[in-house]
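In response to the reviewer comment on reproducibility (Comment 2.3), we provide here a single inverse folding case reported in full, input and output, so that an independent group could reproduce the run without further information from us. The structure tokens appear first.
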């Protein structure tokens, strides 16, 4: 990256860091189960809600408990279950029409990050009916109160229940972009481990490593606070203590509960301290090839950490300590290497691997440009890279022919 752009990026990031204490960040209030959620809606005199989810969630009958509780409280509801793995502008407009047709007054994002992001985007369109999502992309362009927004995560990884971001794919161009503004933070998050019990092992693994990526990128960035460092540290500790059990013994309610807590803490950390190049590259892959975001993050993470080099070793030492991989006597560089190696071992243990199929050489330049635009200057990464430097990561993870 040329010196002038570096100065601009660091100045931009410094301004945001200085502003952190006065910006209206907040954590969603946590609810334990669907009964509490239905009671809340009844208390708030909300007569009709829309549940935004996807076909997979419906096929597992995961919304049935919520539907039963809504009926018991005489709250009418409609379900939009066509959300794509990477939600599109077409999804949002279709769900928006359903919302208005049924006179809904609240939104429940029920599922993984895709469903929650779709619900957030629908809320943004309800709040600003004359403005397209494309005009809201970027930072602080919603700035209007959304309808009551509640998140029910069914995967322990995305952290979308805590964040001010919704990531949407333009249905025509396939460009994937984030919308970031404080009204997008859900008012409530329902952390019910029972809705995660039927999650298959591979998805449990990739979403768990998605949460790990959130915690790590937030922790190693340059815009941390005491609060975000604590949240990220706790998330890493919980993930290393519980992810194996959640993957290989999916019916273990305690492990599932702890992974939901980890995802929540990691989400709180990165929504305030931001992420980095792992996410930027993963988003471009999701937009181009519809690759699930958690899976992409899980593959890319160790490559980017290695590329940052000694710049992050002292921070990785602390995370290695949280993960139980180091103690007070472990040399910093050794601890950092152990942490990265532990991530690679997780990739292999969970059947994720270290390559992604289908990446085409002719697409790399375009995707790297998109990643560069997303990350710079917003993400306070430890080492700045331009589009040309980011191209390296796509080639590292390409499946060899």
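Designed residues, in position order:
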């Amino acid at each position: 990256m040329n010196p002038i752009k570096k100065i601009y990026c660091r100045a931009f990031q410094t301004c945001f860091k200085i502003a952190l204490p006065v910006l209206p960040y907040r954590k969603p209030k946590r609810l334990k189960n669907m009964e509490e959620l239905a009671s809340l809606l009844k208390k708030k005199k909300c007569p009709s809600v829309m549940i935004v989810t996807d076909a997979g969630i419906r096929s597992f009958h995961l919304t049935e408990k919520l539907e039963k509780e809504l009926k018991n409280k005489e709250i009418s509801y409609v379900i939009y279950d066509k959300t794509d793995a990477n939600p599109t502008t077409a999804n949002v407009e279709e769900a928006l029409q359903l919302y208005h047709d049924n006179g809904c007054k609240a939104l429940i994002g029920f599922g993984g990050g895709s469903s929650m992001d779709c619900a957030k985007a629908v809320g943004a369109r309800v709040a600003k009916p004359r403005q397209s999502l494309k005009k809201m992309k970027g930072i602080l362009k919603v700035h209007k109160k959304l309808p009551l927004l509640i998140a029910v995560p069914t995967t322990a990884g995305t952290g979308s229940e805590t964040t001010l971001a919704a990531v949407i794919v333009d249905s025509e161009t396939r460009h994937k972009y984030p919308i970031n503004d404080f009204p997008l933070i859900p008012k409530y998050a329902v952390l019910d481990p029972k809705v995660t019990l039927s999650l298959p092992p591979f998805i449990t693994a990739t979403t768990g490593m998605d949460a790990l990526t959130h915690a790590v990128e937030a922790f190693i960035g340059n815009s941390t606070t005491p609060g975000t460092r604590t949240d990220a540290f706790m998330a890493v500790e919980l993930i290393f203590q519980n992810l194996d059990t959640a993957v290989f013994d999916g019916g273990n309610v305690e492990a599932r509960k702890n992974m939901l807590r980890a995802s929540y803490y990691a989400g709180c950390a990165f929504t305030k301290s931001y992420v980095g190049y792992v996410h930027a590259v993963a988003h471009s892959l999701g937009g181009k090839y519809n690759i699930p975001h958690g899976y992409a993050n899980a593959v890319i993470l160790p490559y980017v950490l290695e590329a940052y080099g000694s710049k992050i070793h002292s921070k990785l030492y602390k995370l290695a300590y949280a993960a139980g991989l180091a103690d007070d006597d472990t040399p910093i560089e050794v601890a950092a290497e152990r942490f990265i190696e532990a991530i690679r071992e997780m990739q292999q243990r969970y059947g994720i691997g270290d390559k992604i199929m289908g990446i085409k050489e002719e697409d790399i330049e375009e995707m790297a440009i998109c990643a560069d635009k997303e990350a710079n200057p917003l993400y306070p990464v430890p080492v700045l890279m331009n589009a040309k430097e980011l191209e390296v990561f796509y080639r590292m993870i390409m499946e060899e022919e």
